[in-house]
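Q: Here's a chain of 409 amino acids. Please give me its 3D structure as tokens.
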Amino acid sequence: MQYKLSSSTIKTKATISLPSSKSISNRLLLLNALSYSPYTIKNLSESDDTKVMLGVLNANSSTFDVGAAGTSMRFLTAFLSKIVGEWTITGSERMKQRPIKPLVDALNNLGAKIEYLEKDGYPPLKIFGSALKGGELELPGNISSQYISAILMIAPTIENGLTLLLTGDIISKPYIRMTLDLMQEFGVKSFWKENCITISEANYQPKVTSVESDWSAASYWYEMAALLPGCEFTLQGLKKISLQGDSEVKTIFESLGVKTKFSQRGVTLTHTGSTAKHLKYNFINEPDLAQTIATCCCLLGVSFSFTGLQSLKIKETDRIKALINELGKLGFSLETNGKDSLSWNGSQAGKENQTITINTYKDHRMAMAFAPAIIKGFDLIIDDPDVVSKSYPHYWNDLSMIGINQKEI
């Protein structure tokens, strides 16, 4: 399926009810299970990833298909490794290309027995769950923070607890901090100094919890605010003091002409028109914002130099390659070092009066980052638009509220 986007008059004022954070939701679901909690989590995300987690945790089965849900694959691999029984976990074709060896090696070093059913180092997995024994464990800190969070959440349930040594540069630190903060809410303390995280053996305590709105989802409204003079968007449910590292989007977009004002309802975004000529930023802590900000910079004519993007290559797609391909269709020629950088020198080739099809690569963030380009006059078709259900199921309905309409073709 494809959507042809159109807009006759775009409204500059709207109040948007953002989706709940799937990052928080998925962690809370696992912590709820580990604490044997009788409580239902309030304001749980309706995203595909969270539905997958919920489905597996409530299933009467030993075989699970998590589809494209990377968080679920990593978190559940760790969780199932300590649950006595035999389990099989698989996913989409893309999931079978996303590495999981560092996590599997770490769990096997703790006494787990996990085998690869197809390609070595990748899902699907056969897990023989059993009691695990802790101690000291090394894990790469520069590949995916989800491996680290998966281990941390089961750490207090392991005999003797765990001392986790993170090797290399540690990426996505706010996601690790989010995990530890949520664990503390459930009664488990941790000690993090430099590259070492220590967690003693302990029992989780059940807790009544609620999920805050998603700052990652807010980033697309920041992008639209940057492109729309005179706009006033109120985004409900966002907190000034947030567990989410992507709340840093409010600071980044100051350089792209967006002012953030907090209230009891959430935040209100206004367009200042004051944009930088060049943006230099290291996304080591907020990699999920890179697509939105790269696209927005191009649409604003703001050249950029981005680093810290190494984890983008193992996301839903190779996001660096996808950005180069799709922004190239809009006339923007981006460059990369092939590892962790992306840059644009500010030049643009003409693409007027052309209908451009944006491939989404089964990646929700590609669809949502590129749709606002219609504000700048691009004639767009979005391929596989339903992919937004992974994190922001009502994204297209929310766009319709400001006059960006979709026609299925």
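Q: Can you summarize the key feature?
A: Residues 22-199 form a domain with the UDP-n-acetylglucosamine1-carboxyvinyl-transferase; Chain fold (CATH 3.65.10.10).
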